[in-house]
Model the fold of this input.
Amino acid sequence: MRLDQKDIQILKLLQNNARLSNKELAVELDIAPSTCHERLKKLTKSNFFKAFNASLNLEKLGFNIEVLIRVRLKKHEREVVNSFIQKLHTLKGIVRFYHLAGETNFMLHVAVENPNTLRSFILDELSDFKYIDNIESSIIYHNKCLHNLSYTNVIE
Amino acid sequence: MRLDQKDIQILKLLQNNARLSNKELAVELDIAPSTCHERLKKLTKSNFFKAFNASLNLEKLGFNIEVLIRVRLKKHEREVVNSFIQKLHTLKGIVRFYHLAGETNFMLHVAVENPNTLRSFILDELSDFKYIDNIESSIIYHNKCLHNLSYTNVIE
DNA sequence: TATTTTAGCGAAATATATTCGGTAAAAAGA
DNA sequence: TCTTTTTACCGAATATATTTCGCTAAAATA
Done:
């Protein structure tokens, strides 16, 4: 499927506000709602969207500390990696994780209530995994989603 | 504002699918649409949502490489940090950034088309900033949003 | 106990989503 | 170049959903 300027506009608008209604999109694109609806349906069916996520005001929910945790495994092998990823899915507090090439094998974006919860997360929950070699944490002062991409290559 | 189990359910459902309609939410919570609507309005007005973001299928859009870039600045001072953040907003390719405490000052999640674009991003775009001390990149094999938080502390 | 607040409901009014037949312009094929 | 096909678009009609509101009952507060 080939994309044009209007398609890109839909993608960008939803990146910034995934809850925009079809009508609101149509107004922005300056096309009829029915036309916009067709485009959105097409983009969705063609799998251009990976997910629609609400990101919450974590501080308001009692998660006063966010950290980025670098994890190095003893063995960076398929089986170890798979079971680690599986473990990540069971742990409470993980907002997002990155599986990386290089020195650091995993980068975890974690939200915790307070320093004690953080200590417990690292010493009790995470270190519980057999193949952990090294863990280092950095407090996140601030983080922001930009989605500032250039789509010139995709447009016909 | 105090949250109960139903509110948490709304937050969680929208974390996983920000485009759920009010009616769909109401069905999940097993309450009337009008009731659900009131709750959602209340949560929104009380600023429990930071953003609603569509995340795109970047590979399909020609962004074949995603990297995590560690940036260390020469001076970690308010003015330098501010202007760096400002610069990040102008750069094309940044999906998300983290401002950190510790050795690494910034962590950038970047999407590029190919190795050449990456080189250009780092050598031309990023290094252009006067106060860059050090840059290191790691390819992202995989990354995923989990939002797997425990809200026991918030519930009454 | 009396009073206020709150969460809930359903019905009505409003607005939106969705489908569909038709049109015109662009793309593809002869 | 002239057809034919495809595509993006529209507006009208219908189906759904959102939103408001008055009312009730239960919970919280005084």
Remarks:
- The beta strands of chain B are 49-56, 65-73, 94-100, 106-112, 132-148.
- DSSP finds five helices and five strands in chain B.
